Structures are given as structure tokens and as C-alpha cells.
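Objective 1.3, modelling of assemblies. Example input:
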Amino acid sequence: MSQFLEISGLCAQIDADGQEKQILRGVDLSIPPGEVHVIMGPNGSGKSTLSYVLAGREDYEVTAGTATFHGQDLLAMEPEERAAAGLFLAFQSPIELPGVNNANFLRTAVNAVRRARGQEELDAVAFLKMAREAAKALSMAPDMLKRNVNVGFSGGEKKRNEVLQMTLLQPTFAILDETDSGLDVDALRIVAEGVNRLRAPTFSALVITHHQKLLDYLVPDRIHVMARGRIILSGGPELARQIDQEGYTKFLAEVA
Amino acid sequence: MNALSKDMSGPLALFANRLNTLTGAQRQSAAGALARTGLPDRKSEAWKYTALRALGKQDYLQAPAQVDEAAVRALLDGVFQAHPAMAALPRVVFVNGRHAPAFSVAPDDVDLSFFGQNAEFGLQAAPDRDPLVALNTALAEDGLVLRVPAGEDAGHLMLISLGVAQEQPVSFHPRHTVVVEKDAYLRLISVQAGQGTYFHNPVMDIRVEDGATLEHVTLQTEGAQAISLGTLYAHVGHKSVYDSFVLGLGGQLVRHEVHARLASPRGVVHVNGAQRLAGQQVGDITSVITHAASDCISRQTVRNVLDGHARGVFQGKVLVEQVALKTDGYQMNQALLLSPDAEIDAKPELEIYADDVRCSHGATVGALDDDQLFYLRSRGISVQEARQMLIDAFLDEAIALVVDATAQTFCRAVMAARFAQKGEA
Amino acid sequence: MPAVTQTREAVEKLGQSTYKWGFETDIEMDMAPKGLNEDIIRLISSRKEEPEWMLEWRLAAYKTWQAMQEPKWAKVAYPPIDYQDAHYYAAPRKKPGPKSLDEVDPELLRTYEKLGIPLHEQALLAGVEVPEGERMPVAVDAVFDSVSVATTFRKTLEEAGVIFCPISEAVKEHPDLVRKYLGTVVPAGDNFFSALNSAVFTDGSFVYVPKGVRCPMELSTYFRINARNTGQFERTLIVVEEGASVSYLEGCTAPMRDENQLHAAVVELVAMDDASIKYSTVQNWYPGDENGRGGIYNFVTKRGACRGARSKISWTQVETGSAITWKYPSCILQGEGSVGEFYSVAVTNNHQQADTGTKMIHLGRNTRSTIIAKTISAGRSDSTYRGLVRVQPKASGARNFTQCDSLLIGDQCGAHTVPYIESRNMNARIEHEATTSKISEDQLFYCRQRGLSEEDAVGLIVNGFCRDVLKELPMEFAVEAQKLLQISLEGSVG
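Predicted structure (C-alpha cells):
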């Protein structure tokens, strides 16, 4: 059966100072449309790598396995083609683009994606109207569209900007990499609300975290535990509470 | 003076005939200095990174007085093409180093005359120390002599220098003088453009008197075969401002050399710039900023984007004399290499003799940032477009330092026209 | 600004009394006649009982030198040096190269004792001076004018397979090693002073660490110029084989004299795959008096070749002495992933002039270099950081970070920064930062409000300013260097 997102036996490595380091060691994961899945796991288990590999970062070399999205070979696509196909990665720490105006960036991205999807491009007026409304809905300061992308933004502003991009690019699948932002509760809430607004039978999300706070705002359908480059356990929402109470050690021991 | 030619070897030999027939003490003395030193080679520290060998490959004739008007008109149209509003500003046009009144639009509120009528060498240029200034001093035929009277806001003025070489390579050595008197204001936009093989060797002597401001943007779009070696001296008075920016795009070998002297307390100097080069271009931005009085501020941001086999050179010295207490100096040079064959050579230099100062400089060299590229691509933007956006942004941060909105818009328009972005946004 | 005024006055009051190493040792010397010619070189070579190839090498270097010009590009000024007006060989009149410490002239041992240089293995081994007993002993090679007078701990080192001996001895005992490496990092004709050194060098240290050996103790050479009208031309060669490592320290002092004396050393380092060399210098040659009379001209060529993959060469220098310093310890980063480091503190006071820095030449892929240079100028001195970072087309992934900071104390001095940055590889990343400032009045006031004397406060702040460099020194040297900083700026630094 052709699932929405289907990952099978995915292995990937990175070249670190001349030495190859295996990070993903056979990830199997399938996400049906309309569901929110969560990947949890200790530091260094490969969670962020999985999100980068799915989004097409070139530093990582896929050595085995497959990933299909809407039946297409995801791994054969360029990062921008994946975006056009509907995949969105909300970065753990959004990149700053000095000198690149935020509105210009958003419009370039939106029109590139629209072009690829066979939709009509937006002119400056129509785009700005749409962007201002979306920004307002996220309680963003009006000048954030005029500023350079993420430059001088606070943590919360950066998260809002990610969600704004997600709203405008209308993905069908969003990966939210929240591994290290655990301490900033506001930032988490912003992201969760952004996802909740997009929830629909045709939209899925993969949320990466290693703590439970995010799940107070986002009700997941399924929880996966990742360790040493593999998904070692999957379950319903109750799994998250169990990890919260008992920690990872027990689960890791069981698998080992 | 006939003995002179014996001492002239290499590139200088090309000018020997003209140098041997000079009249006037100043010109003869400059030619003498030149005969002693010759044109600089890379053994000279100031020319360590820029060789003048290319100059020796052509026989540059004295530029003829008559030039094809249609060619001039076409070049002038080219200057305004990117931003037609500029054509409405007053302008003084020089063609092959000579004033071309037919193409000029006289400005109001300024006192305008010409070197060709009354040779005014100015006080700052030093033929004995700088061979190119010596060459200019010896051979200068014409130039702008501009004076903005005290207290006057003269608005904008364009100084357009066009090189037109048709059959033969030509050379010209204009000598410009700009004085902005006490509390006066001028926004000067210099444009250099041309066609064919020519050697442009301008010297500009600038005085910004007490309380005055000169905003000076130089748009360097010389013709593809041009060699352009310009030297600019700026004397900055008490509480006055010399705010300059150079955008380097054209030419085969181009050097923009600025000597700014903060001569009285509380002066401000900005020597900013950006260059974007490709092919076999060599672009050299060299500056010496001298703090010779207390409480002055100098700022310098220079950005280089180098593609193909292009080579960028940045030499920036900040010299703080013993009297220049409370000096605040900052300098930043950054380079982006886009091709495996591009090269940047940078020498940011601090020479400091006063203790109560705050001076710093920085330099970075690198390629486009992978994280930024990936971020853009993950938002659906193609790799070419993403690269273009990052390159534009990198240069635009320097262009954003241009204070005068008209000149800033002009620079942006010229950039956009030259490097048309796919799928404009 | 009363604090600063006082500081300046105090700096101006600085006299000869502050140079505590300026005494002279009365010892009978064997001197070559003044002047430099082929006969003198033959004399040096024969005194050293050198093999023929060594003499030929020297003579060739001398020929090269004769055709060269003294370099003028450094920002230092001094009257012309008469190279014929110095003795090129001076040795204590005793058989050079004593076999054991017992044979060393007691007067010499006393000299090194006064300098605080331990030449007594027994006392050190017994841990008499440092009761904790934790401290690693340091093996010392003491070079007095033109010859090595003592090398300690040779047995211990031999057991580990490490060769540590005077280079004059290495020429005879290990000719194959010396011939294989001498002049391969700094060719004789590299520059005017290296050519001079190659022709007339008299002694210095040779270190060879074989494959896989971590040298069991710090190695140290202590250079002392004593005789009048002599130059010192030492030559150091350190070769560290695959996977081996060594930490080497170098110290130097000289008596106070009215004349200038020339010190033109050459140091060559070679590091193979995964080898590491840490080379630390505390340079305290006599700087001249407060009027700029006398002092050492320190014209030194130091260069390391990271030939092997992942090899590492780290230079740390604290330069407080010499009337003029001209030195640029450099790294040629040839091996893939090799690492070069340069940590420097240069202090100038009175009429001292220093033009010092480094060169990092990136040839191999993924090579990395770090430069941290701290310059402190006081009195009427002039100090320049001059550094080159060059990335060649094949050095993809090369990285450099440079930080140069200058501090001025008083308004009669100068501090200059002259970096050269050349990149021919689009995948290299270079970052350079430099600042110049004075000691902040706020910091001074804060310290004094907390009860520190002004001098202690300046000392504290200067040491803080140099911390990033001082922490790179081996422990014992760091303490010594810290004291030296204070003494060099005495009056302003307590």
C-alpha cells in the first residue's frame, strides 16, 4: 500500500573531519495522512539527522534504505523539489540571512513553490496582503516582514517566523525539529499552535523532541522512540507519559 | 629633459615622448620624480598585490580631442539606463579626460571651472611619493574644479567620466578638485564608464572644510578592456564629514585608492565599498585613513564577491597619529569566493601612535554559507536563485551604507541591471 | 586621568635595575678573531670537529649570504650592522661538551643557578625544590655563548629512545638524521639571517623523537650570551616521527652591555603523521637601557613543517627582551588535516622595537590554524604584529582564525597590526580580528576601589589581557612568564 510517508531501512552517515560516522542505522517509519507523529529519544540518537536527511541536506550521505513521499522517491529529489512537493522542515535553530529582506525571501519562496505546483504566482500586492494577515494571526510585529531573515530575532520571533513560513508555503507534511529548544515554553507553544492550525485529513507532521512539554500543546497520534540510529519502539500517546515518568533507560535496556 | 627617456623602462617608456616635452616647473618636477622611481612594481609594498604589467602591453596614445559623438551619447545613455531618473540631475561630463560641455547640465549654487583653463594642482597629492600621481601631474590636461560656497546646500552633482577608444588605445589623466566650503553640503556621484582599450588615471583632490559634508559615491563601470587607476585625496576639517562609497564592477584592472586625512577634531570619514568581479578582472580597493586630530571617527566596510578568475585586493591602513586621542576607528573587509580560481588578497593594517584610542578591524574570507543555502532551498527556492539571493544580500549590506537615498537607489539599480536575478521578487 | 599619568611617569623612571639577568660571568674564553670570512667558518667547523659535508654546507651558505641584502621591510630602525666587527666563535675555555655535569665549570653552574635554571639532576629528581613531587622534571640543554655546556637527563631520555643533545654533537653522532633534515624547513638561502646562521652557527639543540614515543619530560634549552662583541647563532632542529610528541621550552638572557649584540638563530621543526610539537619560548634577552643603549638584536627564523597528516605544531612565545625583535615562527601545513598554532605575547618598553608574528601556509586539505597575538607597548617603544595567512588552491576546507590585540601604555609608544590574508581556495574560511586600545580607566578604577595598588591593578589587567596565550605555556613557564611581564613593565606594572 502506498502510504503518505514511507521510510524503510534508512541508513545515513556524515563525513566528520575525514572520518565517516554512521548515524542512521536502519530507520523504519510510516506516517499516514492526517496524523501527528512524535519521535523521542536521547541526545545523539539521530533524531535531527533524520529530519535533515528527509529535507535533503547534502552533508549527510544516505548509504541504504528508501524514503517515499506521496509515492515519489524522496531521496532522489533536490531540497527545493521536496519543499515544492509539500515537505516543510521547521529548523531547530533557524538560519540567519543577513541582508536578505524577510518579505522578499517569503515571496521568492512562495512563488517558487507555487510555480512548481502549477499555481499562479502572486504579485507583490497580493503577496504582502496575505503575508501581513498571516503575520498578524501569529501576533508578529509588523516590522518583522521588513527586517532581514532571522537577523536579530529573539528565540520566540524566530519560531514565529518559521511558523509563518509554514503557513504561507502550505505543506502537506511538516517536520518540526525541537530537540534543543525544550526550555523555552513560549517557543514550543508557538510551534504547536502553528501545527494545530494546519491539522487536516491531508496534513501530517513529524515532531522531534526529547521531552514531553511539547505534547501538552499538541496531541499526537503516535510516539516513536529512537536510539542509536533506529526506531526501537512505537506506541500510542501513553508511551510519552511512560517515558516522562520512567526515563529512557528502561526502554533502551529492553531493546539491548 | 631629453635625458629622461633613458630612465624610463617598462610601462613608463610608453609615456616617454610626452614626458620629455613638458613645460612648467610642477610638471617637470613630477616627471623627474617619475623617472627616478618608475611605475611601481610588486616589490613596492603599496603595490604588493597589484601588478601593472598589463599597462605595458599597449601603446596608449594621448586621447584625441575629437571623439565620435554618437559613441559618447550611447555611453551616456548606458549610464542612465538602469535608473533613468539620474538623467534629471545636474552633471559634468568628461570625455577622455576633457570637459564635454555639450553633454553636461550645469549645476546651480556651485562655483564651477576647469583645470584646462586654469591648472590647479591642489595641495594634497604627492607626486614624489606616488608615481601614478606623478604621471597625472605631468600629463593632466583637464579636470573639474568645483567649489561649493560656504553654507550652501548644493544638492546632487554627477561627475561622469567616459573613456572612448576607437582604433587606438588612449590614455587620459584628469585632475579634479572639489572644495566644499564651511558648513556647505554636496552629494557627488562619480560615474566611470567607457568602451575600448584605454587607461584612465584620475587624481581627485577633495577638501571638506569645517562643518561641511560631502557624500561621495563612485560607480566604477569602466569598459571591459579598461585600466583605471584612480587616486583620491580627501582633507576633512573640524566637525566635517566625508562619506564615501565605491561600487566596483567594470574594467580589466581597476584600482581605487583613497587617502583620507582627518585633519581637525571631530571629523568623520567613511570609506566604504563593494566590488563584484568575474572573468580575468582585477579590482583593488586601497585606502589610507590618517587620524591627525582627536575625537575623529573612521568607518570602513568593504565587501568583495569574486567569480571566475577574478582577483580582489583590499589594502586598508588606519594610521593614528600621536595627537589623535579618542580616535574611534573600525574597518571590516569581507570576501566571498564563488569559483575555485578566484582569489582575494587582503591587508587590513593598523598603525597606532596614540594610546587613548579604540580601533579594530576584521576580515573574513569564505564561500557561500551552506546552512543558509540549505535553508533557502528547504523553502522551495532553487539553488541558483538561492545563491543569487545570498550574493545580492552580501553586497547589499554594503550598499545599504550609502547615506544618500538617490545614490543608493542608483547603485542598486545598476547592480540589478548587471546581474539580473532570475524570477525577480 | 591621574592613574595613567602616574603610570607613564613610572614607566619613564624605569632604569637598568629592572633587568635582573644582566650580570656578567667572569670566565676564561676561547674566542675566534673578529670578522667573518671563509677562514673563520673553517675555524668554527674545525673547533667543532665537524665532518667535511658540514663545512661544505656552511661555505655554500656563506656564499649565498654574501650575495644577499639585509631585509628592510620590518618596522624597525637601527644603525647599520658591521658584520665584520664581531666574534663568531666564543666558548668557555674548557673542553666543550662535557660528558657529565661534574665536568662543568662550577662558575658556569653558578651562572645558571643565578638564572634559576636547574642543572642539578639530583636535586630535581629528589624533588627537593618542589615538595609535591608531582612535577615532571625538565631536561635542560644549556648553551653558553657558542657552545652547549650541559645537557641533563640524557640517560632517562635515551631509555625512551629520545635523542636530546647539542646539535654540534648530533652532527657527529647522528649525521644521517642531521643531513636528512637540516635546512629542509629553513633553507640556508631563505633569508639574509638564515643564510648567516647557516654559515656560522655554533650550537643549539637537536631533538629526535622516534615513532610512537611520547617524550617522557619537557625538554628545555637555555641560551645565554655572555662574552662581549659576540653574536649568538644557534641552530635547533627537532624531528618528531609518526605518532610521537614532544614539548620543548626555550629561554634566553644576556648581560647588560652598552653595545648591541646580534642573535640570529634558526629553528626547524618537522612533524610526521599524527606527530605533535609544542615549542614554547620565553625570550628575555637584554633589552637595552632606558635610553635605548645596548641590547640584543634578535633576528630569528623559526619555522615548522607539518609534513604528516594530522600533525600539529604549536608555537607559544612570550617576548619581553631584546632591543629589536624580528621573528615570525611559522607553520607549513602540508599534511592533510594538520594543525598550526601561534600564541604570542610581545611586550616592549623604553626604546625596544619588536616586529613579530607568524606565517600560516595552508597547502593541504582541511588544514587548520589559530593565531592569538597580544602586543603591549609602553615607554617609547614600537611593536608590530605582522602575520601572513595564505591558503593555496589545493587547501580545500582550510580554516584560520586570527585574533590580534594591542594595548598601549603611555602616549610615546606605537602598536601596529599588519596582517596579510591571501586565499586562493573558495572552500577555505578565514577570520581575522584585531583591536587596539589602552587599559580602561574603568577597569583600573574598579580594581583600585577594591584595594589594589595601581601597579598591581595594571599587572592584573595586563595578565588578564594575555591570559589566552599564557595558558598555552607549560605550568612552570607560565608562572615565570607572568612574573616577567610584571618586571618588563615595572613601574607601570609593579
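Residues 1-17, 122-135 of chain C have pLDDT under 50 and may be disordered.
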